[in-house]
Amino acid sequence: MTLKRKNRKQLLCAAIALLLCLVCAACGRTVPVYFDGERALGIDVSSHNGEIDWEAVSKTEVQYAFIRVGYRGYGDEGVLAEDELAAENMTEAAKHDIPVGVYFYSQAVNEDEAREEAEFAVKAIRHHTISLPVVIDIEYAHASDGSRTGRLYEAGLSADEMAAICNAFADVVRDAGYTPMVYSNSYIFTNHMNMEALDDDIQIWLADYNDSVTYSGAYQFHQFTKQGQIDGINSKQVDLNYWYAES
Asked: Membrane-spanning regions, if any (predicted)?
């Protein structure tokens, strides 16, 4: 067994231990993360990254992966759709001993839609090994000129309503036996989400590409660039993340 594979096996055990820890946690969003060192490198991918050579990825420094399982369109109808490479990516990542979490790109504008998205995600992963969190990716869509757009943005939800959507998604995820997590950027977490209203066991995955993170709250995962390059991923760029140990 190679050193990288051994470390990945240890991380898988760590993920299971983390899940158990979260189930038992009574309060607070700071949770222990069990792996060697201060942080572990991971990727998040979708069909936008094309066909992935997971064997090649397994030989890199990547220790885990978050895979998109589906998304809601940001038009008025908000149709749900499956990521066309989700099943293949989950199967192949697990085959090569890479711990997997999943995310759903949300455009939910109310709690019922959030539950619908979570149920979609849970159904998509029911035959796969998922040891890391199931994530609601809640962010505003952007037009070609960079301006914010889409049904979530246009709904003009309050910070409390945004938090309620995340909690509704988390309820379904938790009831299905998975760990809930919210992904967004510093702008939304700081200005458009009541972080104190989130359920205590919800983990935070922060997207912030600045040299110094602008979000002042706690988080467990940090997407620090969307311009990474990893062997086995044929797209020019891939999102890279750090999973931080408890300080």
From this structure: none
